[in-house]
Amino acid sequence: MTTRAAISGTWTLDDRLAGPVAEVPVEVRPGTAALTVRLSYDRSAGVLDLGCAGPSGFRGWSGGARSEYTITPTWATPGYLPGEIEPGVWRVLVGLHRVPAGGLPYEIRVIRHVRPPVRPRRRRTRFARVPGPVPPEPFAVRRRLPSPHGYRWLAGDLHAHTDHSDGTLSVYELACVAATAGLDFLAVTDHNTVSHHTELAAASALAGVVLVPGQEVTTDLGHANALGDVGWIDFRRPPDEWAKAVRDRGGVLSVNHPVAAGCAWRHAMDDRPPVVELWHWSWLDRTWGAPLAWAQAWAGGLSGDLVVVGGGDYHRPEEGHPPGAPTTWVLAEGDGRGPETAGAVVRAVAEGRTAVSASPGGPLLLRMEDEFLAVDADGLVLWGPDTRRVIRGDLALLPARPGVHRLETPANEVVAVCT
Q1: How far apart are CA 367 and CA 194, in angstroms?
Q2: Burial of residue 134 (number of CB atoms within 10 Å: 0-12, 13-18, 19+)
Q3: Is residue 274 within 8 Å of residue 307, measured between CB atoms?
Q4: Other Cβ atoms within 10 Å of 209 Cβ, number
Q5: Is the CATH number 2.60.120.380 carried by domain 2-113?
Q6: What pLDDT band is residue 144 in, cutting at 50, 70 and 90?
Q7: 139-418: what fold?
Q8: Contact (CB, 8 A) for 225 and 277
Q9: Looking at the chain, which residues constitute the CATH 3.20.20.140 domain(s)?
Q10: pLDDT recorded at residue 126
Q11: What global pTM score does this model have?
């Protein structure tokens, strides 16, 4: 048995300017076993995002990737959190991402189920791949990269999405793709939700790759990754509050793709995070210096205070760039295995033990205490504050100085970055 209600109206440009997320209250009566919400509007005219808050707080977000969700006590649409359907006032969250000058008519249909609906079968994708045997050692060991006692260099990617937001693969399918790419770790950073976190441990064990919990905090004025087991970060609050919440909970906040087209970083912050996704997959022409210039301006010219990471921003196989393009390297404590590795990856980023390369097997620049190690970089040029020199040999040790350094081809194309 179900009961239905429809709420309709028109979002205006004034509504959008009043705040990026509107709240539509819905009364849920006692005895409701499950809740379904459907949003309809003319998608050719504008863009509306969709989410949910219950009487006790956040219950999920799917942005513009979905037009419907269902929440029950034991399961929910990916992007949403299952749990008790509490009686009281629920709120349909509607992100007013793009609203035309003439307004955007909408309808919200709310379906209250007295008995839980049948759980839909998880769809199978023809892109799912189960990897072959996973190498028992971290990628850096396979490349014979030296590391200090008690540490390992790990190769991975700090930015990827699943069907819990706007990706097409399940958490396990994504983990298999990362393992097939030869990565040691992958951060799963779905937009404005943490519903995927409960699936990470099982998928990690099955696929043989370390999965780091994350959330891409997503707004019209820029995106940032909250890395670590820090819970949900409220994207509706100012960015300085994100940074404080993530720091207080033991995680790391990274500013994402700061010069990427429509999602460039435009937020003002009093407390600027030092971690920057300087190398995003969309940096296709790496002779173009805008990401480097932005990072220097962000740090106020003190590039030694920056921690540079990369992000493949993987969503679906059709995009043509796998996780690890670019590759973020971290110098993590331990042997590169075991349940503590996800935390070790986050701590390494927090402490600036990072480097970025175009791929797991590409030329590499690593900081080893007071020296740089240039790997497979013969003939490349090392650039940095007060540093200009040509690398000779496939394995070269060079004096290390503070600041962001990079390897370039003679044609000025960046191929590796290190902080």
Answers
A1: 33
A2: middle
A3: yes
A4: 25
A5: yes
A6: confident
A7: TIM Barrel (3.20.20)
A8: yes
A9: 139-418
A10: 46
A11: 0.92
In the chain, which segments carry CATH 2.60.120.380? Answer: 2-113
pLDDT for 65 beyond 50: yes
Query: With bands split at pLDDT 50, 70 and 90, how would you rate the model's confidence at 304?
Result: low
Tokens encoding 148: 């200090």
What are 378's two structure tokens?
A: 């013969």
Both tokens assigned to 359 = 């791929």
For range 389-393, the mean pLDDT: 96
pLDDT at 159 over 80: yes
DSSP bridge partners of 92: 24, 52
Token pair listed for 21: 């997320």
Q: Token pair of 55, please?
A: 């009487």
CB 154 within 8 Å of CB 142: no
Asked whether 213 and 247 are in contact (CB, 8 A), the reply is no
Environment class of 334 (CB within 10 Å of its CB; exposed 0-12, middle 13-18, buried 19+): middle
Please name the residues in contact with 114: beta carbons below 8 A apart, sequence gap of 6 or more: 1, 2, 3, 31, 32, 33
Contacting residues for 194 by C-beta, under 8 A, at least 6 apart = 81, 213, 215, 231, 232
Specify the residue for token string 């590169």. Answer: 336
Give the position of tokens 């199978």: 124
